[in-house]
Amino acid sequence: MLWDSKLIQKYNLAGPRYTSYPTAPQFTTEISKMELIGKMLEPSRSPLSLYFHVPFCAHLCYYCACNKIVTKQYDKGAEYVELLGEEMRLRALMIDQSRPVTQLHFGGGTPTFLSEENLATLFDIIKEHFNLVNDGSQDYSIEIDPREVNRSKLELLKSLGFNRVSLGIQDFNEDVQKAIHRIQSLELVTEVMSDVRELDYHSINFDLIYGLPKQTLEGFNETLDKVIALSPDRISVFNYAHLPQRFAPQRRILEEDLPTPDQKLALLKLSIDKLTDAGYVYIGMDHFAKPDDSLTKAQQEGHLQRNFQGYTTHAETDLLAFGVSAISQVSNAYFQNHTDLSLYQNSIENGQLAIMKGYISSNDDRIRHAVIMQLLCHNQLNSSAIEEQFGINFNEYFHSELDSLGNLQEDGVITVYYENANIQINITEVGRLLVRCVCMVFDKYLTSNSNFSKVI
Fold it and tell me: N or C: which end of the chain has fewer CB within 10 A?
């Protein structure tokens, strides 16, 4: 990948990650819950993607901005599984339960906070209400804290149908681990990796973070060497956004320990160079995958998708999400559950869906969603495909947006070709890190007051 520091600094603006469009700030509490439920009741034959949010963590990681509850009371897991079971019962009444579940993900928090008994019970309830696939084509994944898993739990997860795991690594450097309050040794991670491979899981993902306190080029270079030696199938390298005013645990991180903006860019460049030199394919934004990985193949074949879990290979699914703060996407509508556990619990125990807010996309939203996802997933946009799908004249519909692309084109972030009535927008190699800036041009809701982290 080409690297232009001045260009990156110029366009390193605050902007959405576009796991949805419209993005979460547009979700509203003013929308009628019955109107949202009506969208859920619309008949569909699309496959299902299920997401379960487990908010509990036994350890507090100072950098974390997830919706979580830090506790050592593991018995809370059993109570929470009961709530998830009741929510599933309510939601399953509204859909055709024969629809296949092609994708399933447990996130958190720490899903492996749940005991083996809790996990088995939860999966029994899922199987009771949904048509799980277990023929090898499924994409069933779970986020794993290496400190909260053992061989026995990994064996159980495999037997339940999970075939992908994602390990939170962040950084192997001891000084960094102390600064973020997440101590996990290379030996521990290696042992977990050995168990996962022996149990024949289909895919392993590592999550890394750059921009953490105490990180240096030398130290992160050593972390990347260790990661490459362990050879996970996918690697995500996320930008640490220091927002202590929004996330209380981050107030324990000293500002003076953070890398400077220039040092953060150097850490990112190092990551890209090391991983691509090691044979990983840069998928986009912060994702890398091996050449034979299904994520890479999906991008090459033109059917890569993006949702609240990031890039995905499973297209045209309705996403049903369960648990506190979880976000569903069904029939061009978004539903977010209560982010407060007590409010979520009260709703479920009273026989009500725990919907806190939501959004129903307009036709314009759907058009812009298609444009943004094409750019994010495939680094290009062909106007003819959008015109055919939505029956619009792209040049007329996006006249002002096309004019706004001028600076990005002049700076070499994109190329724009006009051939007869067709318009082709391509993200250049030097512009791939800035693809979100191109997407922002087509985002009609973006304002100068929008509260997002920087794109890099």
Answer: N
Phi, psi of 64 (to 5 degrees): -70, 135
**What are the pLDDT digits (tens) for 78-97?**
999 999 999 999 999 999 99
Q: Is 237 exposed, middle or buried (0-12, 13-18, 19+ CB in 10 A)?
A: buried
Helices (H), 199-335: 217-230, 261-277, 294-301
pLDDT level of residue 1 (50, 70, 90 thresholds): low
Pairwise CA distance, residues 215 & 209, whole Å = 10
- DSSP strands (E only) in 163-300: 164-170, 203-210, 234-239, 281-284, 287-289
Query: How many alpha carbons lie under 13 Å from residue 377 in its C-beta half-sphere?
Result: 27
Q: Which two tokens stand for residue 339?
A: 């982010």
Q: What is the pLDDT of residues 262-317, one digit of tens each?
A: 999 999 999 999 999 999 999 988 899 999 999 999 999 988 988 887 888 876 89
C-alpha 388/C-alpha 277 separation (Å) is 39
Q: Report pLDDT digits (tens) over 366-412.
A: 999 999 999 999 999 999 999 999 999 999 999 999 999 999 999 99
CA dist., res. 287 & res. 12, Å (int): 18
Residue tagged 């289909």 (tokens): 202
DSSP string, 301-320: HT--EEETTEEES--S-EEE
Rounded to 5 degrees, φ, ψ at 285 are: 50, -100
> Residue 106 above 80 pLDDT?
yes
Q: Tell me the pTM.
A: 0.94
Distances in Å between the Cα of 82 and the Cα atoms of 209, 243, 285, 305, 340 are: 34, 34, 37, 32, 17
**369 and 389 in contact (C-beta within 8 Å)?**
no
Average pLDDT over residues 167-193: 97
Question: Taking a C-beta distance cutoff of 8 angstroms, is the pair 55, 69 a contact?
Answer: yes
Helix pair 116-129, 151-160: axis angle to 10 deg: 10
| Confidence at 449, pLDDT banded by 50, 70, 90 | low
Dist CA 364 CA 371 (whole Å): 11
